[in-house]
Amino acid sequence: MHILVLNGSPRPDGNTAAMVRAFAKGAEEAGNAVTVVNVCQKKIAGCLACEYCHQRGSGHERQCVQQDDMQDVYPVLDSADMIVLASPVYYHSFSGQLQCAINRIYALDKPKALKKAALLLSSGSDHVYSGAIYEYQNSFLNYLHLEDMGIYTAYGRQNKSPEKLDELYQFGKTLNQASFSEV
Questions:
Q1: What mean pLDDT, rounded, does the chain reach?
Q2: Where are the coiled-coil regions (predicted)?
Q3: Is residue 29 one of the residues assigned to a domain?
Q4: Is 55 inside any structural domain?
Q5: Helix/strand/coil (H, E, C) string of the chain?
Q6: Is residue 53 part of a domain?
Q7: Is the pTM of this model over 0.70?
Q8: For residues 56-77, b (16+ Cβ closer than 10 Å) or e, as one string?
Q9: Model pLDDT, residue 60
Q10: Is 123 in contact with 90 (CB distance < 8 Å)?
Q11: Is residue 166 included in any domain, yes or no?
């Protein structure tokens, strides 16, 4: 199975990146192909709401008018069975860079193979997750009709702790052919 991780952290060695590495290691050991896209290292603009991508009969359905690095992400997204959104929590939501990438998924309407999703969040406090979780559950999952595979959070001293990283590694290990054939 193919898992796409959109890492929304601007810090390559930060807490979110450590969570992503632990998850990806477990998922790869379970036999999955994992692609990690560090969206903060990409030039991905916000959605223009121009509806170019949804003009039926135009010959450019499912194509974004913006020619930036999101064009490289679309084919990976279209072939992924699962997407993992990973982000530090900024003002009770995703990083701005990740939010731009999420909004641009709209161009594909619904990615062709995508069936499941998970959320990885890191923060300095345990009471800041509600906005990001609401956005994930009520906008992202519902709009794309995806099965929720889990929400994993780490805050304060949990960040980069062996216990938390093992939890994410074990989550990745549980994702195998059987977990994808259930849908």
A1: 92
A2: none
A3: no
A4: yes
A5: CEEEEEECCCCCCCHHHHHHHHHHHHHHHCCCEEEEEEHHHCCCCCCCCCCHHHCCCCCCCCCCCCCCCHHHHHHHHHHCCEEEEEEECECCECCHHHHHHHHHHHHHCCCCCCCEEEEEEEECCCCCCHHHHHHHHHHHHHHHCCEEEEEEEEEHHHCCCHHHHHHHHHHHHHCCHHHHHCC
A6: yes
A7: yes
A8: eeeeeeebbebeeebeebbeeb
A9: 76
A10: no
A11: yes
Is residue 177 over pLDDT 80? no
pLDDT at 166: 98
CB 23 within 8 A of CB 167: no
* HSE of 3, CA atoms in CB hemisphere, 13 A: 32
pLDDT (mean) for 147-160: 93
Q: Which of 70, 76, 134 is nearest to 107 (CA)?
A: 70
**104 is in which domain, residue-wise?**
37-171
- Total domain count for the chain? 1
What's at 40, amino acid-wise? C
Q: Which residue has the higher pLDDT, 89 or 181?
A: 89
Average pLDDT over residues 132-139: 86
Q: What is the pLDDT of residue 71?
A: 97
> Average pLDDT for residues 37-47, to the nearest whole number?
97
Q: How does strand 116-123 pair with strand 2-7?
A: unpaired
